[in-house]
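Tokens for chain A. Residues wanted.
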């Protein structure tokens, strides 16, 4: 994978003109990108991604939710959607970008299944540049781009995270989750990214959440000299698992649930005080440009 990523960067750098993409909504680069990631799998990252997307839509924002987990692309399963096409079909030229977008709920649009992204490393420069234009044009139509990445510190996971305007790092109180989260922070800091906000998930009570965050942050400050920020503490909720089994995360059943209420508060925090959209043609301009 590292060889493929290097080849991708080399090809992308050949196209040294950063295109300006007209937008139906606003100018390119005004979409705020958020990578939702974790050092360890099984921490509730995808559930958070889906719920946060719906909560941002309730704030009157247009949201593009991209399944960026190369190994286990499953956002569509959680949403009960069976798409005909996904991102790999766009990359292979089988369909156009607009053909894969599915509206999950009003305001939330899904770009399903990113399992074909590794094929980018085998494309010629011309095709790669056309894809960059397509992705940037797609991004320009939304207020927020949410990317549900894979877990761990692999090349593609960290590529999504380091080019995003904000990284939401999901952890649990489990010691292995904290250790892997520290590894993720270390890698991103080494790559010059310090836009990391922590979400502590599946806690029994708020005190446990603060203790888990404090343990992580103490190590980050001690060894990396720069703290991370706590954005949210989310409970271990049986209803969340029940909604997941019914593929009903975005249904009216979730109204009044504490988990969903806290994610709504997180969405408002992001809208009112979160990061501004970055420069360089938006997320995809930076990602394809290897900056």
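Reply:
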């Amino acid at each position: 994978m590292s060889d493929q990523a290097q080849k991708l960067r080399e090809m992308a750098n050949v196209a040294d003109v950063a295109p300006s993409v007209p937008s139906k909504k606003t100018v390119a680069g005004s979409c705020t990108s958020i990578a939702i990631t974790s050092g360890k799998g099984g921490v509730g990252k995808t559930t958070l991604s889906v719920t946060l997307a719906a909560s941002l839509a309730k704030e009157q924002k247009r949201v593009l939710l991209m399944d960026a987990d190369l190994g286990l692309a499953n956002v569509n399963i959680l949403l009960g959607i069976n798409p005909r096409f996904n991102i790999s079909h766009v990359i292979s030229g089988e369909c156009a970008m607009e053909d894969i977008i599915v509206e999950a709920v009003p305001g939330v649009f899904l770009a399903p299944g990113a399992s074909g992204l590794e094929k980018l490393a085998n494309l010629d420069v011309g095709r790669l540049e056309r894809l960059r234009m397509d992705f940037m044009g797609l991004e320009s139509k939304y207020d927020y781009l949410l990317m549900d990445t894979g877990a761990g510190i692999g090349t593609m996971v960290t590529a999504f995270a380091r080019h995003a305007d904000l990284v939401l790092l999901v952890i649990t109180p489990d010691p292995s989750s904290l250790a892997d989260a520290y590894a993720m922070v270390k890698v991103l800091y080494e790559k010059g990214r310090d836009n990391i906000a922590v979400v502590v998930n599946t806690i029994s009570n708020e005190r446990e959440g603060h203790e888990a965050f404090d343990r992580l942050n103490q190590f980050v400050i001690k060894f990396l000299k720069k703290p991370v920020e706590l954005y949210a503490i989310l409970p271990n909720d049986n209803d969340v698992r029940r909604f997941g089994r019914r593929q009903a995360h975005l249904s009216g059943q979730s109204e009044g649930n504490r988990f969903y209420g806290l994610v709504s508060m997180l969405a408002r925090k992001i809208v009112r005080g979160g990061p501004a959209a970055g420069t360089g043609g938006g997320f995809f301009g930076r990602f394809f440009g290897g900056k």
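Residues 8 and 230 are 34 Å apart (CA to CA). Confidence is low (pLDDT under 50) at residues 1-28.
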